[in-house]
């Protein structure tokens, strides 16, 4: 059975009014008053007409209320459940629309008339509504009247199931006869947009969720489903579906579910989803990971996966022309947008068992994971195979494929689950947010909230022995509240990371997309010009970020000092600002242009003292080429000693205008020298989107963010592993500093403060 949370049809509660264009008369209880007089005339006396009572057969026969009001079949009523000595056989509630008879004079009575009692089901009402193409309300005397507004509290009135003959009734010593009631007024149509039917989206009890049960049938049979309410204390066997919400080419209208009181359920659904998702997907017998049924490449990819898993024959797949189609199809599978969804990481990470589905095709998720691991190990050989047969291999290395790699890694490594069911979380919230910075989320704060159950530093708030209703979310460092301002949520996240890591590096990491323009500068946003998922920077937010993974910094410019911060205590002024401690080291004096992808400009070489006509390697300034690689090798390793020779080779192959074309040199060196290619890849990852500068007082060489201007301040903040560029405010911002970004300053990156 499939897991889904959707609203379903509910029988309207008798006390809940139905909408109508004439609210003054709709929903009112009609009063028909008659009273006997000596002359035989009929006057009105207070007799209330009560109709439209939803009752099961047992309650109808006994004349009692059928509670709870608005229950959804097959839920039994309280009367049948509490019957002694055993429960009664409850039935589907039926709607009785009989009206109380009115006594008339004998001359007006029709002796052969009969009192009729009718019942309607909700399906009958729906059919009548569709046939008339407009919703309408039957009225007994020409005025609108809502059936659902009738009172059902009285139990002394009995409604008969079968017609019976009408006979004279004695009242006040005189004999009167009933007359035929007037015919109902014509149906009064009104606009469908004005009609808001009662919703059956009944609140669930703590620990409950709904399962959509699919009845068996043939391929051409009508689909029959029903809702089952399950609880964590009594779990049935079910499957959960993990899929891309809002996918496909549909252009449907978004519908907000409203209850009878016109209140939206979106807040309830979102909060309940956060609390229950972990239990639902963890206890599912299987999680069906739905890809699509539209892409024709999926069939070839699913059929090719068993060949990839045949390790003994992998070399043939890397050489044969026949396997090119399979590799192309598999890469197309990796680029599916479903692997770019943030919420799905939690769903698959918690799953006990998972399968991938594309139409009628399926494969086990772990088989897909192994196939991708083999693909990554052989990616260079696959690239050569594709080039050999005139197929562009660019998709093997683009950001979509890299995003899938990150997605698969987190779904398989974020949690370690023991045989006893104990969950060990492997990453902190900071690490998870940085590793998923490029994935999509429907709400900006979901970039944080969706990862909380997977974070090691929030494990105590998601105890495996506690139900969601027992979570003490109020004591969490990050309070889950979708009504809060995005800037406040991000500030609290930054504060939590500083508290837990005792480092300020988070203010230099690019980790969130710019949704609003007024985010504080210490919340670093992703730039569209930054390359995605660079091999050296998968744990931070931007091409060539100078920080390593959390807890593994490449530098120690602050000499191991502990971070100190203070949130602005004045709530009315600069409420998003944070106070840090540090000192000013120097200012920017000279500044080169921004480096673009694949190019080192002539202006940089001139500022660095390099001459493209230099024949001697010894004449190349060491401080300049070390600045180009930030004095580190890949992943923060020690700078290889041969880097200066590789730079000399590149300098001798500069363009006639004096620029070094990195992209051209990489293409030329792929077949000849992998060392030059490695050096150029490192240079490109460091200098891209940065400016080369020389400081004012100490003549330091360095690299600064694109937004840097001459006169900006080079500062060292306590607890930050790299120097930062700050810009002092003016006017109303006087006394406040704006963070431009992190920077590399050659000579002061490793605990050297001799300049003070």
TrEMBL record:
Residues 1-42, 101-181 are annotated as: Disordered. Residues 121-130 have a biased composition (Acidic residues). InterPro entries: HetReg/Transcr_Mod (IPR052895). It comes from the Eukaryota. This is Heterokaryon incompatibility domain-containing protein. It comes from Hyaloscypha hepaticicola.
């Amino acid at each position: 059975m499939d897991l889904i949370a959707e609203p379903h049809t509910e029988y309207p509660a008798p006390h809940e009014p139905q909408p109508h264009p004439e609210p003054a008369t709709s929903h009112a209880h009609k009063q028909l008053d008659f009273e006997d007089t000596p002359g035989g005339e009929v006057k009105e006396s207070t007799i209330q007409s009560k109709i439209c009572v939803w009752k099961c057969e047992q309650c109808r026969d006994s004349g009692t209320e059928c509670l709870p009001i608005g229950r959804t079949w097959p839920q039994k009523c309280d009367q049948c459940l509490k019957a002694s000595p055993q429960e009664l056989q409850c039935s589907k509630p039926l709607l009785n629309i009989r009206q109380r008879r009115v006594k008339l004079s004998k001359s007006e009575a029709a002796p052969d008339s009969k009192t009729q009692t009718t019942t309607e089901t909700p399906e009958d009402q729906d059919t009548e509504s569709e046939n008339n193409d407009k919703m309408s309300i039957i009225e007994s005397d020409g005025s609108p009247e809502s059936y659902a507004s009738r009172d059902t509290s009285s139990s002394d009135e009995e409604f008969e199931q079968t017609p019976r003959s009408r006979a004279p009734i004695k009242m006040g010593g005189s004999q009167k006869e009933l007359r035929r009631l007037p015919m109902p007024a014509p149906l009064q149509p009104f606009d469908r947009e004005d009609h808001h039917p009662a919703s059956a989206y009944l609140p669930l009890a703590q620990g409950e969720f709904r399962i959509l049960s699919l009845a068996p049938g043939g391929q051409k049979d009508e689909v029959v489903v029903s809702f089952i309410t399950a609880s964590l204390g009594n779990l049935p066997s079910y499957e959960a579906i993990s899929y891309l919400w809002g996918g496909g080419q549909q252009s449907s209208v978004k519908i907000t579910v409203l209850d009878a009181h016109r209140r939206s359920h979106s807040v309830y659904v979102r909060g309940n989803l956060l609390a229950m998702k972990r239990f639902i997907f963890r206890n599912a017998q299987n999680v069906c990971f739905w890809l699509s049924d539209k892409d024709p490449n999926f069939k070839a990819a699913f059929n090719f996966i068993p060949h990839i898993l045949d390790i003994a024959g992998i070399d043939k797949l890397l050489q044969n022309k026949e396997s090119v189609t399979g590799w192309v199809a598999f890469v197309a599978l990796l680029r599916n947008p479903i692997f770019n969804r943030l919420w799905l990481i939690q769903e698959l990470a918690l799953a006990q068992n998972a399968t991938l589905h594309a139409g009628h095709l399926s494969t086990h998720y772990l088989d897909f994971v192994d196939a991708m691991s083999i693909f990554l190990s052989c990616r260079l050989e696959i690239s050569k195979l594709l080039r050999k047969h005139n197929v562009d291999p660019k998709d093997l290395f683009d950001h979509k494929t890299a995003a899938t790699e990150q997605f698969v890694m987190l779904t398989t490594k974020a949690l370690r689950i023991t045989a006893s069911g104990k969950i060990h979380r492997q990453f902190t919230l900071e690490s998870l947010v940085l590793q998923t910075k490029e994935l999509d989320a429907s709400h900006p704060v979901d970039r944080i909230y969706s990862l909380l159950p997977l974070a090691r530093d929030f494990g105590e708030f998601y105890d495996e022995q506690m139900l969601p209703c027992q979570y003490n979310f109020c004591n969490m460092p990050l309070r889950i509240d979708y009504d809060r301002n995005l800037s406040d949520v991000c500030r609290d996240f930054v504060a939590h990371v500083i508290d837990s890591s005792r480092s300020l590096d988070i203010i230099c990491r690019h980790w969130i997309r710019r949704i609003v323009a007024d985010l504080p500068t210490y919340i670093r946003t992703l730039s569209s010009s930054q390359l995605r998922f660079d091999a050296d920077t998968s744990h931070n937010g931007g091409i060539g970020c100078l920080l390593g993974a959390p807890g593994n910094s490449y530098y120690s410019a602050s000499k191991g000092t502990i971070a100190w911060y203070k949130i602005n205590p004045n709530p009315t002024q600069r409420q998003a600002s944070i106070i840090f401690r540090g000192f000013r080291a120097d200012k920017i004096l000279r500044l080169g242009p921004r480096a673009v992808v694949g190019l080192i400009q002539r202006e940089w070489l001139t500022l660095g003292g390099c001459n493209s006509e230099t024949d001697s390697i010894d004449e190349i300034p060491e401080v300049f080429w070390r600045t180009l690689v930030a004095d580190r090798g890949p992943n923060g390793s020690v700078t290889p000693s041969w880097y200066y020779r590789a730079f000399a080779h590149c300098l001798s192959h500069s363009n006639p205008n004096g620029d070094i074309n990195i992209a051209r040199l990489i293409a030329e060196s792929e077949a000849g020298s992998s060392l030059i290619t490695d050096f150029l890849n490192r240079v490109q990852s460091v200098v891209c989107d940065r400016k080369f500068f020389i400081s004012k007082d100490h003549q330091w060489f360095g690299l600064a963010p694109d937004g840097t201007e001459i006169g900006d301040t080079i500062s060292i903040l306590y607890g930050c592993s790299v120097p930062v560029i700050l810009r002092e405010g003016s006017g109303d911002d006087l006394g406040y500093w704006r963070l431009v970004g992190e920077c590399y300053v050659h000579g002061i990156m490793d605990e050297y403060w001799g300049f003070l």
